């Protein structure tokens, strides 16, 4: 967490697996674009693999390998963390109420949550994840 101090942090909780390859895997490419285009503005993007198979020692390695395959396939440049201890629960795991991942949490420079979004964003093919981008810009202090 010390690497996120004073920075806007986007946490993306998702299963990060290569099979079955289902939506919203395409959104992670736009998330990667956001990460690659904002380094000077102190934005950190962390993917968090919240695959429930990580909780079982017998399936943990398969979950990790599946996430690594997806990261390589998508050529992601932002780090992916493995949620072995169920850390998504600290932010309110939407699966507890029957909803599905992904979960996006944006944490401001002061360490406070400024945005919480369950599910996917609308994608604009030309402008990416506009809603998330606007939230990050505001948290960074960039003009719209």
Describe the structure concisely.
It is built from 4 helices and 5 strands; from the N terminus they run E-H-E-H-E-H-E-E-H. It has a 5-stranded mixed sheet with strand order 3-2-1-4-5. 27% of the residues are buried.
Describe the structure.
The protein has four helices and five strands. It has 144 residues and is an alpha/beta fold. Strands 3-2-1-4-5 form a five-stranded mixed sheet. Helix 2 links the parallel strand 2 (43-49) and strand 3. The longest helix has 15 residues, at 60-74. The two termini are 28 Å apart.
> What distance separates the N and C termini?
28 Å
Radius of gyration: 15 Å
- Judged by helices, strands and strand pairing, the structural class is alpha/beta
Main sheet, how many strands, which sense, barrel? 5 strands, mixed
SS element count, helices: 4
Question: What letter string, H or E per element, gives the SSE order?
Answer: EHEHEHEEH
DSSP summary, beta strand count = 5
- Overall pLDDT score: 89
In terms of DSSP E residues, the strand content is 15-25%
Strand order of the largest sheet: 3-2-1-4-5
Q: Rough shape?
A: globular
Fraction of residues in helices?
25-40%
Which consecutive residue ranges, at least 5 long each, have pLDDT under 50?
none
